[in-house]
Structure formats: structure tokens, C-alpha cells
């Protein structure tokens, strides 16, 4: 065959399609085999960072369930809770300013490390900086520490999936993306368990200090482990360190069992992509935003990425829960701290199960179909539960009303379970390496202010119509279904570099629609057929 005649006779196209064919090659390392520790270890450290992010987000929603917190830190009303929750968005917007520098200048590991160090310092301030201050200053000190902690968590978590997607074996990237979504839920679960445990503790400020202190533990573990993981091969290629990148591809991506052909094909693809890529050798170069709109391909990819994330941000308006869940529980007759935290704990476990199922089928079922299926099922179930809530509201059945409202929260979890995995996959698949950090920074910087506004809108919606806000949630689920039907392309079964092919077409969605209508959805079969044709032509 032509591909066996030597490296010089392997064209860029052949190498590209060979690598695609190998993406799902049965000879790739088994996911749970012993040699895969070289993939699991660096990806696992990144997962721990995202678990810390999930823990932090869950804590911002669950810690107001504790009476000690609403007594010492923030008032128990919609506006005060919205202000507390918006700290995450303010800090995330600040983190976006530093993302291009932190991720591109020295590499992904640098972004990891600096983010975790900042998070550790912020958590320590929130816990210990509030011990020796007057009661009137406790809130200010806690908010200051939390702002710093979330700044660090946003930096490290934003880098985590970029790094993991670039170090993971192509055959297992989608599954790891699913696990990342689950890790966010695992962070939730750890927080739920701790918050639930705090309800058995004697009333004191340590009821909210201990959960806050756990943030520092996550960061400390990451700080210890990060020096032992390799740098991203794409970062090394962008710095011109080809030999080091090839070593990482062989030893960590291929787990030292990948064939020479696998390494050669992947390196060939990387050389093509990074031949003229910016090196980001100075801080100013990391802030050069021109790659975001330099080509039509880049413009389409950035547009789809930001639009998809904007749709997800809208979910904040209709979400049945979030930081306002403590008010909802009170209104439906579930006012005890232990009741509220137990429901939150069960909901998180349910989310982990749903997330694992979604991650298992992300490559076989596809990102697009997974999203649309979740929307469809959740809208159907949500409509039924919303109708039941109206019936119990009119009949005055308080107990039944409480039960159905809890069911509505679980429906929301079912709806959002594939969001985490697909959103993470899109961060690496919709943005090319040369502007991946810049695109995420632009998205976060523009998206966080809108999230703040939407949070206050949500508080106004809840104040005006209280628990009837579930009808708003149903409306947004229907809107999301329609929008994703028309704007969401399919990126499964492709290496990160091969996603270019989708966006080389002026209408990426319609290209994918044509492929589905013509029956050409098996990209691996398509690649092998193309290789066969090239071999026959060469012979």
C-alpha cells in the first residue's frame, strides 16, 4: 500500500484520514487497561480541578440553606442571594481577562498552577480572615476571600478541559469529556454531603467555615500533583518544541503502546496545524485577538461557540433552583435545613447517574442528538409536573405540592445532565488551539455580565410569580430545542484538528444535515474508503 512506502510518501490528507480511522481503532488502548494510567493520571488531575469548580458552584447554592450563614453573611431574600451568587460571575469575568496570558504564555500547566494557588489563598481568607473581625465586617471579608477564590477556580477550571482534551487519546476524548461533566457533579456531591453534615452540628459560624475550607483542600492537592503531569503536546508544538511534543504523544497520549504509525500520523497533523501558528512568546502576543476573526473558518467556529454558550446562559432565567432554592423550599413547605440538604444530596446523585449514562453514548449517539433528546424528554416530563403543580396549588394540597415540586427539580437535573459534557467538548472542538484560550476568554468576559443580569432578572421573576417560575423554565426548554436544532453541528468521531473540515463549509449545520440525509454518518468508514481510493490511485 502507498502508506507503507515511507514517511515522505504520506501526504497530509492521507495522514489526516488515517488518524481519523485510528480514532476508533479496536487496537487503541482499552479505557480501563493498566497502561492507560498515563492518560488517566494527567486527565484525573484536571478532573479534580473541575470537581473543585463544581464544589464551589454547589456551595454558593447550598450554603444559604444553613441558617448560620444567612444570619452571619447574607440576608435571606432574593436580592441578597442574587448578590452573593453574582460574586461568581464578577470574579469569573475578571478571570477571563487573564486567561490568554495564563493559558498561552507559559502553557496549560502554568494556568493550572497559578489558578489553584490563587484559589487556595482566597479560601483561606474567607475562613480565617473572618475570625478576628467585627460582626459588621465579616460579610465584607468573606466576600473578598470568595472573590479571590473564585478567580483562581475560574482560571484553573477553564484550563482543565483544554488540557485534558489535548492530552487524552483520541479514541477516549468523548468519554473523558463525559466524565468531566460528572466530576462537576462529584464536586456537588461532596459539598452536599458536607452541608448535610453541618445540619447535625451545633449552631455556630463553623457551619459555613468548614464547607468553605474544603475549597482550599481541593486546591492544595492539585498544587502538589501538577508538577508530575506532562505539558500539552499542542502547547509544546506551539512553542516549537517538536521533539518534546512527540515524546508526550508517544508516552502519555499513546500510553507507550501506540504504534509508530499512530505517533507519526498525529505528529504530521500537528505539524500541519502549527507550522504557521503564533508562538505566543511574549505577554502581548497572548492578547492578540486577530486569530479569532482572521479566517472565515475561525469566524464560524467562534460564532457557534459563543452562541451555544449564550443559550446555556439563558438557562439561568428559567432554572428551577439555583441560589433561590432555599426560598422555593420554604414556600412549598420544606423549610427545615435537613430536609433541604437531603433533597439536594439525592438530586446530585441522580445527576451523576444521568451524566455517566450521557458520557457513555456521546460518541456513538452524538453530541447533537444527546442534547435534543434531553430537551425533548425534559419538556415532556416538565409539562406533566408543571400541570400537577397547578392542580395541587388550586386544591390546596400542600404535601402533594411539595412532592411534585421536588420532582420538578429532578426533571431539571435530567434536562441539564448532558449540558456539562457537551459544553466541555465544545470548548476544545469548536475552538482551534491558536485561539482556544482567547475564544474562551472572550466568551467568559461577555457572558459573565449577562449571567449577572439574568440572575437579577430571575430574582425579579421569582419575586413576582414565586414558584410559577417553572413555566418560564418550560418556555426556555422549548426555545433551546429550536435554537439547537438549527445551530448545533455534529463533531463526533473527529480529532481536534479535523473539526476544521466542518467549518470550512459556509453553512456548517447544513453540511452535517446533508451528511445525515445521504446516510454518510460513519466518518471512520468514510476515512477508510478514502484511503482505499488513494491507495488504488497510487498503485
Automatic annotation (TrEMBL):
One cellular-component annotation, GO: membrane
Keywords: Membrane, Transmembrane, Transmembrane helix
Cellular location(s): Membrane
Annotated TM spans: 40-58, 78-103, 110-131, 143-163, 175-198, 210-229, 302-329, 341-358, 370-389, 401-426, 471-488
Domain of life: Eukaryota
Any GO MF annotation of the entry: carbohydrate:proton symporter activity
Matches recorded under PROSITE patterns: MFS
Membrane topology: Multi-pass membrane protein
InterPro entries per the UniProt record, alphabetical: MFS_dom (IPR020846), MFS_sugar_transport-like (IPR005828), MFS_Sugar_Transporters (IPR050360), MFS_trans_sf (IPR036259)
Similarity field: Belongs to the major facilitator superfamily. Sugar transporter (TC 2.A.1.1) family.
Name this protein carries in UniProt: Major facilitator superfamily (MFS) profile domain-containing protein
Amino acid at each position: 500500500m502507498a502508506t507503507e512506502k515511507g514517511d515522505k510518501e504520506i501526504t497530509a490528507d492521507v495522514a489526516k484520514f488515517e488518524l481519523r480511522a485510528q480514532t476508533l481503532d479496536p487496537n487503541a488502548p482499552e479505557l480501563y487497561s493498566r497502561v492507560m494510567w498515563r492518560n488517566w493520571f494527567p486527565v484525573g488531575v484536571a478532573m479534580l480541578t473541575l470537581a473543585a469548580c463544581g464544589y464551589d458552584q454547589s456551595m454558593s447554592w447550598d450554603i444559604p440553606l444553613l441558617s448560620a450563614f444567612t444570619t452571619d453573611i447574607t440576608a435571606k431574600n432574593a436580592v441578597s442571594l442574587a448578590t452573593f451568587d453574582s460574586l461568581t460571575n464578577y470574579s469569573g469575568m475578571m478571570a477571563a481577562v487573564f486567561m490568554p496570558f495564563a493559558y498561552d504564555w507559559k502553557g496549560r500547566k502554568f494556568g493550572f498552577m497559578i489558578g489553584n494557588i490563587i484559589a487556595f489563598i482566597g479560601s483561606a481568607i474567607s475562613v480565617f480572615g473572618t475570625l478576628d473581625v467585627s460582626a459588621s465586617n465579616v460579610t465584607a471579608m468573606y466576600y473578598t476571600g470568595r472573590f479571590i477564590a473564585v478567580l483562581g477556580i475560574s482560571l484553573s477550571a477553564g484550563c482543565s478541559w483544554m488540557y485534558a482534551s489535548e492530552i487524552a487519546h483520541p479514541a477516549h476524548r468523548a468519554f473523558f469529556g463525559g466524565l468531566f461533566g460528572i466530576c462537576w457533579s462529584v464536586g456537588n456531591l461532596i459539598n452536599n454531603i458536607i452541608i448535610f453534615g453541618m445540619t447535625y452540628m451545633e449552631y455556630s459560624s463553623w457551619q459555613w467555615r468548614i464547607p468553605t475550607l474544603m475549597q482550599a483542600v481541593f486546591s492544595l492537592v492539585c498544587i502538589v500533583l501538577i508538577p508530575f503531569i506532562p505539558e500539552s503536546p499542542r502547547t509544546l508544538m506551539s512553542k516549537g518544541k517538536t521533539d518534546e511534543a512527540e515524546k508526550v504523544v508517544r508516552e502519555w497520549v499513546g500510553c507507550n503502546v501506540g504504534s509508530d504509525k499512530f505517533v507519526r500520523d498525529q505528529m504530521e497533523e500537528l505539524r500541519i496545524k502549527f507550522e504557521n501558528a503564533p508562538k505566543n512568546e511574549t505577554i502581548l502576543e497572548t492578547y492578540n485577538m486577530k486569530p479569532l476573526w482572521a479566517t472565515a473558518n475561525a469566524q464560524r467556529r467562534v460564532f457557534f461557540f459563543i452562541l451555544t454558550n449564550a443559550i446555556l446562559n439563558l438557562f439561568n432565567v428559567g432554572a428551577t433552583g439555583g441560589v433561590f432554592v432555599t426560598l422555593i423550599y420554604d414556600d412549598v413547605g420544606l423549610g427545615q435545613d435537613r430536609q433541604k440538604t437531603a433533597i439536594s444530596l439525592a438530586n446530585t446523585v441522580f445527576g451523576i447517574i444521568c451524566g455517566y449514562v450521557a458520557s457513555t453514548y456521546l460518541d456513538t449517539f452524538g453530541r447533537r442528538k444527546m442534547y435534543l433528546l434531553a430537551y425533548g424528554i425534559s419538556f415532556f416530563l416538565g409539562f406533566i409536573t408543571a400541570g400537577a403543580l397547578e392542580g395541587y396549588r388550586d386544591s390546596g394540597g400542600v404535601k402533594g405540592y411539595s412532592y411534585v415540586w421536588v420532582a420538578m427539580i429532578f426533571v431539571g437535573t435530567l434536562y441539564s445532565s448532558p449540558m456539562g459534557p457537551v459544553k466541555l467538548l465544545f470548548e476544545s472542538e469548536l475552538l482551534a488551539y491558536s485561539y482556544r484560550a482567547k475564544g474562551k476568554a472572550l466568551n467568559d468576559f461577555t457572558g459573565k455580565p449577562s449571567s449577572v443580569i439574568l440572575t437579577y432578572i430571575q430574582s425579579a421573576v421569582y419575586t413576582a410569580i414565586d414558584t410559577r417560575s417553572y413555566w418560564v423554565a418550560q418556555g426556555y426548554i422549548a426555545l433551546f430545542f429550536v435554537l439547537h436544532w438549527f445551530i448545533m453541528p455534529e463533531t463526533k468521531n473527529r480529532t481536534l484538528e479535523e473539526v476544521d473540515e466542518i467549518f470550512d463549509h459556509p453553512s456548517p449545520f447544513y453540511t452535517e444535515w446533508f451528511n445525515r440525509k445521504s446516510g454518510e454518518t460513519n466518518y471512520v468508514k468514510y476515512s477508510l474508503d478514502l484511503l482505499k481510493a488513494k491507495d488504488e490511485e497510487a498503485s
